DNA sequence: CATGAATGAGACTTCATTCAT
DNA sequence: CATGAATGAAGTCTCATTCAT
C-alpha cells in the first residue's frame, strides 16, 4: 500500500529566508490560482510567478496539492483573523445590530476575495476536507449555536435547534457565496438586510409589530 | 469565420445501434464522472467503461467536453421531466400544499441523483453556461416569480420582488444541494418543513395564528 | 515480407455505374486536394465530398494513396490531351511560332490548374514516380530532342544535345511552375516572350539580326 | 559543494549542456527528416534519435514545426555562411569568372546537402515563409540586381530588368535544385558551364564572334 | 455493392516530479 | 538550498482502414 500523499508542508522553516521564500510561493500560487483557476495553475507557472526555479518548489512542498492546501489554509487564516475582529466587536453590541454587522462583515470579506473564493468553490477538486476552512465554518456555527441556546426562550416554540443551526449557517454561507460569485442585481446593503430578515423571521416567535 | 467549438453531439444517430452506443457512452461517462470526478474522467476511461475503443467516442462527440455537456443535459432533461410532472400536480393543489410538494420533490430528486449532482457542483469546471440546467433553474424561478406577483398583496409591504426572487430560489436550490451532498443529521421530512418555514416566513405579512 | 502497397485501382470497373462513381470520387478528391492540400485531404472528407460513405471508397481504391495517384494520373491525362492538341497544331506551323505557341500553351494550362499544381508540387509526398506525369514530361522531352537533332546544324557548334535537352525541358517546366505558383509581377505574354528568348538564345548559333 | 577550479570556464556549465542538447535535437531532427521526410518525422522519432525522452523536446521547442523551422534556419545559416565567403571571393575577381565561381559554389553547396535539400523541396509543407531561406534567396537576388543595374549598357537594349531578375534567379535556383535532386547524366563542370551559358546569352547584347 | 460503426495505432503535447550539478 | 534539464506517464484527438449488416 503506497503511503498516503502528504498534504502538509514538508518542513517548518526555521530560518527567516526560508519563511520568506515560502510566502513568495504562496503569494504566487494565490495569484495564479485566482487568475487561471486550478487547472491553469501548473507548478511551472507558480514557480515562474514566484521567481523561482520549478525544482525549488519541492523543497517547500511535497507536491502540488500541498501548495493549494497551504494557499487555502492561509486564506482561511486570513478570513478567520478578519472575522475574529468583527466577532469581538459584535459581542460588545446588542445582538440585533451585532448579528447584522457579522453578516455584513462576512459578505464584505468574501467580496474582497472573490477571485480566490471562486477558485475554492468552482475549481478546486476536493482535496479531502479543508482543515482550516472547515474550522472557520465550525467557529461561526458555534457562535450561532451559543446564541440560539442562550436565547432559546425568545424563539418560536417548535424550533429544532440542531436543524435550525444547520439551516442558518448554510443559508448565510451559501447565499453569501452565490451573491459574491454571481453578482445578482441586488445592492450590497439590501442583500445584508434581506439576509438578516430571512434569518430573523425564521427563528423569532412573534412578528414585528 | 471558424465554426464555434461545438459542444453538441457530432451526429444525430439514425440507426438503432448508433442510438444504443450513444446511450452506452453517456451511461459510461456518467458512471466515470460520478466515480472519479471531472479530472479523472479521461476519454480513455470513458471509452473503456463503455466497452468501446477510444476512437469511437469521437464518432459521436467532437471532444471530451461535449460528452460532459451531453451527460449534464441528459441529467437536466431527466430532472425537468420529473419536476414537470410534479409541477403539474402541484398546480392543481392549493398553493400551501403545492409549494411544499414541490420542495419535497426537488429534494427527493436530488437525493436520487446525488452522485451526479456532486460532480456537477464540485467537479465540473465551468463549461460555459449549461443550457439545459440553467433553463430548468429559470423555469423554477419563473414559477416563483408568477406566484410572487399574483399574491403580491398577501405579502409584507416592503418586499422587493426581484431581490426576494433571487433569495428564494438560491436558498432553496443551494440548501437542497448542500443537504443532499453533506447529509446533515436532519431527516428528510423535517428538512422539507424547515425549508418551507424559512421561505414562508420570509415573505408573509402576518404571523401564522 | 509484406506485399507491396498497391497503387493501382483495385479493379477496372466494367459497369457504367461503377465508372461514374469512380469519377465522382476522383472529382471530389481533386477538389478536396486543391482546397485543403494533401494533409487536409482525409478519406472521410473525400468520401463526404463525393456524397459517399467512407467505406465505399475502398471498393474502388485499395488505399488513400491510390486515390491521390489516380487524381494525378487523370490530371496528367488532361494535360496530355490538351497539350496533344497544341502539339499537333504547332507541328503545322513554322517552328519559330510553333515553339512559342507550345510555350504559351504550357503556361496557360498550368495557370488553369494552379490549385492542383500546387498540391502536386508542394504537398504531395513522393509516392514513387508518377507514371503518367513522367510520361508527359518524357513526351515533351522527345519533341525537343527531335527538334534539336533535326536542326543540329542550325545551332552553335559546341552544343551538347543531351545536356541541352535536360536544360531546356527543366528550364521551361520549372519556370512555368514557379511562374504560376509564385505569381511574380510579370504579365503572361511577357513571360512567354522571355522564356522563348531564354531558350532560343541558348541554342542558336547566330545573333538575331 | 566543492569550489569550482579556478581555471575552469566560469561560463555557463548549465547553458553549455543545454546548448549541446539543442544541437543534438537539431542533428537528430535533420537526420530523421532526411531519412523519413516531413510526415515520417514524428516528435517521438526525433526524440529517440536524439537519445532523449519525448517530453524533453518541449523544453527547447514549443512544437514540432518549431523544430523543423529551426532545422531549416540552421541549414540556411550554413548555406549563407558558406556562400558569403564565396561572394566575397567572387567580388575580387573579374565578373565573368566571379559569376561562374558563384554558380559553381551554389551547385556544390547544394550537392553537399542533397538530403536536406530534398526534404525542403519535396516534403516540407509550407510553414509560412521561411525567414532565413528567403533572406538568403533575397540576398542573391540583390547581388544579381546590382550587377544588372551597373552593367545595364552592356546588355541588349530591350532587357526588362525586373523580369530578367526573376528569370535569372529562378532559373539558376531551380535548375541547381533539380540537378542535385534528379542527378541527370551531366557532369558537374559541364552543368556549371551550361548554366553560365544560358544566363549570359540571355542578357548579353552581342554574340561571341 | 453500399453503409457507417468500430477500430487502434499513433500523433502532438502537458505536467508533476526527480536528480545531477 | 537552488537550479533547470530530464523524465515519462497520461491526455486528447485524428485517421486510414476493416467488417458486420
Automatic annotation (TrEMBL), chains A, B, C, D:
Coiled coil: none annotated. It comes from the Bacteria. Keywords: DNA-binding. The keyword DNA-binding applies. Residues 42-61 bind DNA. SUPFAM superfamilies: Homeodomain-like, Tetracyclin repressor-like, C-terminal domain. InterPro entries: DNA-bd_HTH_TetR-type_CS (IPR023772), Homeodomain-like_sf (IPR009057), HTH-type_TetR-like_transc_reg (IPR050109), HTH_TetR (IPR001647), Tet_transcr_reg_TetR-rel_C_sf (IPR036271), TetR_C_15 (IPR041669). PANTHER family: HTH-TYPE TRANSCRIPTIONAL REGULATOR PKSA, HTH-TYPE TRANSCRIPTIONAL REGULATOR RUTR. This is TetR/AcrR family transcriptional regulator.
Amino acid at each position: 500500500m503506497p503511503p498516503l500523499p502528504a498534504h502538509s508542508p514538508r518542513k517548518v522553516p526555521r530560518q527567516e529566508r526560508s519563511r520568506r521564500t515560502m510566502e513568495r510561493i504562496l503569494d504566487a500560487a494565490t495569484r495564479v490560482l485566482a487568475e487561471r483557476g486550478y487547472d491553469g495553475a501548473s507548478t511551472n507557472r507558480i514557480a515562474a510567478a514566484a521567481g523561482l526555479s520549478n525544482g525549488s518548489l519541492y523543497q517547500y512542498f511535497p507536491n502540488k496539492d500541498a501548495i493549494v492546501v497551504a494557499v487555502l489554509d492561509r486564506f482561511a487564516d486570513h478570513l478567520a483573523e478578519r472575522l475574529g475582529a468583527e466577532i469581538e466587536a459584535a459581542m460588545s453590541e446588542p445582538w440585533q445590530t451585532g448579528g447584522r454587522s457579522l453578516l455584513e462583515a462576512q459578505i464584505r470579506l468574501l467580496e474582497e476575495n472573490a477571485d480566490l473564493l471562486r477558485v475554492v468553490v468552482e475549481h478546486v477538486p476536493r482535496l479531502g476536507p479543508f482543515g482550516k476552512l472547515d474550522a472557520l465554518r465550525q467557529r461561526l456555527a458555534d457562535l450561532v449555536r451559543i446564541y440560539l441556546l442562550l436565547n432559546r426562550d425568545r424563539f418560536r416554540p417548535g424550533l429544532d435547534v440542531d436543524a435550525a443551526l444547520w439551516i442558518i449557517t448554510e443559508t448565510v454561507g451559501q447565499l453569501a457565496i452565490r451573491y459574491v460569485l454571481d453578482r445578482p442585481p441586488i445592492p450590497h446593503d439590501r442583500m445584508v438586510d434581506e439576509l438578516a430578515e430571512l434569518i430573523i423571521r425564521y427563528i423569532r416567535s412573534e412578528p414585528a409589530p
